[in-house]
């Protein structure tokens, strides 16, 4: 029996050069990372921080068990919820994350698939020490497609620049470059390198500002992250990316979390303190942004809540 790895995932580092032939290239999907292992006919799925995903995505667990067909398997992949055009959308996967027992209607309305991009264990073999090409060869022997379980494609003969052009044309989040001679190592690694079309970060919701058109819902959320000393630091306000139902749903939670004093340290602009409504830092969200500056995130846009992360895990993103 293969000893499945602890729920610790390899994490991409800086991007490779356009002509670096040491790398194979895969798509970077807009979803939730998932480590899955199937042992004795039982599937276990965990998120990046080790939380179980089985209850939220029972159809994926069932399909993985069928794919294993009685064998021991350990897989790494990305859970995504495509829209009507087939484009993975983070806000859609977020609709499934917070639901412990999704109804048949929700599963049908928000279908999810798992793109598998690495094989860490197969049968009685632990493949983590094998190089990328060897692991990929074993992975491609599995019977894909298998229901909502799909093989994520891998490319070696296409420049990164062209990969990014295709990603932009199809609204894919970006590209991951993986060293073809690399073993699978948990944590941040130079063997995996990321080149996103747009940057994303996790943030902690610490307050809100009223909207101009209506006092019933917020106009923007005040967000923060932990600095190197572990203190929450304000990153600014996020006012775009919300649907009307999302604004009303979040507003109810904001009212329930209201506090009198700001839960952040450091200087707060007067323009914010004069009108801000503060909340206890319990909600974690995901935002897209152009760059991080000395004062916060430039052009941030809300993508959805992150039920798979705790506020303590959210750190200020690196400067661009």
UniProtKB/TrEMBL annotation:
It catalyses: ATP + (deoxyribonucleotide)n-3'-hydroxyl + 5'-phospho-(deoxyribonucleotide)m = (deoxyribonucleotide)n+m + AMP + diphosphate. The keyword Metal-binding does not apply. Pfam families: DNA_ligase_A_C, DNA_ligase_A_M. Its EC number is 6.5.1.1. The keyword Ligase applies. Gene3D superfamilies: 3.30.1490.70, DNA ligase/mRNA capping enzyme, Nucleic acid-binding proteins. It comes from the Bacteria. Residues 105-227 form the ATP-dependent DNA ligase family profile domain. InterPro entries: ATP-dep_DNA_ligase, DNA_ligase_ATP-dep_C, DNA_ligase_ATP-dep_cent, DNA_ligase_ATP-dep_CS, NA-bd_OB-fold. GO terms for molecular function: ligase activity. Keywords: Ligase. Belongs to the ATP-dependent DNA ligase family. This is DNA ligase (ATP).
